[in-house]
């Protein structure tokens, strides 16, 4: 069995308990900040520089919830110019993205659409067209069908459509310290990442990234933690 699937099963139960504990803690922090009248975004920015994974995960979820509140500026711009605009939906998955054209709509129709989908965030591009972003904690169809994580020719940990040998890179994560990785990990695990690890669900995707982030080259690792 794939080593990352075994790891995933052992982590599931602990993850549930850990998430519950930190959710309660994060909600307490939010309540305290509200009582003090301190903007959440300022505190989130400071908290996101810390290295405790569970805190980062919970506060990131809270930040997403805040970001999903419909933008007053976006709605105001749509209402003030009740014109026909082309509307797009960009589905941003944990692994992969998909875009589709929803068609032309008047301002009122655009606002009604966002009211029906409050988790969508919208913006108007330079051409006057409307784009909605829908964040989905899942794999896109293409990732489910043929997603692999492996090494590109330059030693970057990357997401591929198909095995790495096909060289169809969809996303590059970070540069790996190959020497450090090879000296620390079992040979079979190193061979797996060189041949490409098939990604079949979000937990396995996150598990692979978490495992190999320990061997990111210094500059890349810093950048990853800041994103």
Automatic annotation (TrEMBL):
Residues 137-213 form the Bypass of forespore C C-terminal domain. It comes from the Bacteria. The chain crosses the membrane at residues 20-38. InterPro entries: BofC_C (IPR015050), BofC_C_sf (IPR038117). Keywords: Membrane, Transmembrane, Transmembrane helix. It holds the Pfam family BofC_C. The keyword Membrane applies. This is Bypass of forespore C C-terminal domain-containing protein.
């Amino acid at each position: 069995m794939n080593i990352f699937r075994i790891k995933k099963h052992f982590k599931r139960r602990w993850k549930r308990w850990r998430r519950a504990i930190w959710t309660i803690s994060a909600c307490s922090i939010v309540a305290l900040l509200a009582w003090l009248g301190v903007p959440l975004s300022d505190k989130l920015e400071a908290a996101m520089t810390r290295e405790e994974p569970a805190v980062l995960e919970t506060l990131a979820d809270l930040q997403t919830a805040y970001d999903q509140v419909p933008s007053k500026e976006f709605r105001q711009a749509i209402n003030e110019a009740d014109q026909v605009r082309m509307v797009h939906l960009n589905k941003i998955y944990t692994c992969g993205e998909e875009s589709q054209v929803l068609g032309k709509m008047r301002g009122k129709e655009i606002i009604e659409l966002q009211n029906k989908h409050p988790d969508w965030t919208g913006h108007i591009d330079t051409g006057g067209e409307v784009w909605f972003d829908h964040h989905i904690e899942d794999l896109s169809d293409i990732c489910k069908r043929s997603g692999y994580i492996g090494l590109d020719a330059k030693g970057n940990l990357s997401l591929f459509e198909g095995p790495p040998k096909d060289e169809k890179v969809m996303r590059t994560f970070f540069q790996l310290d190959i020497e450090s990785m090879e000296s620390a990990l079992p040979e079979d695990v190193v061979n797996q990442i060189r041949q490409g690890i098939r990604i079949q669900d979000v937990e396995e995707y996150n598990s692979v990234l978490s495992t190999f982030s320990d061997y990111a080259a210094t500059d890349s690792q810093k950048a990853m933690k800041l994103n």
